[in-house]
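ingest -> validate -> predict -> emit
validate: passed (alphabet ok, no gaps, 334 aa)
predict: started
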Amino acid sequence: CLRFGVDKLSIYNFKLTCHNELKATEGNDSYIKESVFIRKKGLFNLEYTTTIIKDFTEIKTKEYSLLTFNPNKLIHGHNIYNSKKEEIDYALDKLLDNLRKRGIELDLSSAKFRDIEININFSINFWEYLQAFTIIVLQLPNPKYYGRLNKDSETIEELRSDEGFTDSNKRRIFRLYDKSEEVKKKNKIYISNLIRFEFTFYRPILNEYFRRKKVENYFHYLSDDFIEEIFKYYFELYISSKVNSHIKIKNAKLEEEYLKFKRDQKQAKQFKRPMKYKVYEHLKKFIVYDKQQILDIVKIYNNKNFYREKEKIENDFSDKNTFEKLFNLEPVFP
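emit:
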């Protein structure tokens, strides 16, 4: 199911009350620090610290709070799926009930977002879409490809694992990766052709987003509209708005090389010199994402022979269909 949803999120600025025996205490004459730390691996982390600082004139109290949880892991035990608002609320109720049974109460009425992971899954093959993914990650400032080999594999298909691209800075992380390989390795769940586009948004971006809405970065503003809107906005800002410009640059280069070849071809005929290549062989030396790029050039400069040339182009560039693949990513490339 194509939908935008949350994988993991962290909130802060909440209140915690519990029995004193659940608190770890340390200190000396100048401060007292009380801490509650609970970790359920892969499901949630809770940290809450109150520090009372004594100096000569006054007593200061500092509080630190952080709750990180993965809604789908709390509900299903894995994160193949993502979570909409209703599922996040359900998972959070389970988490709070778990804490309540331990004697811990949380007041989230003033909680704020610290970070949030939002993603969308596509049922497509990683390698068949590699050229389309390449265009996407080329728009990012510092993209990295990662891939490892599964040494315990018994077939070529199982040899590869954890393939994808990532790009990060202090504001956000973007990942595009083969989720089916990840869950096969981590959860022993065998599915195929599940590709995930994922943003992790940190506080600077979240604050920026909510400022545009003229509200503060409060957790209670979480909604399905927010989940989809923030992903689409920053995907368009960082990636899709730049893809068209990138393709136009490549189109201009192909057009320049096509016209240059035709001029050289005309001179070669004039002086009876043999040409080393045919025009389409020449264009293959450059980046061609889609046969439509070549068709558009020929339609402009050799329209009278277009239908004859079209058959040649479709044969010579039969594997170049990246535009169709970008179109298939319709929720992020409208």
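The longest helix spans residues 224-270.
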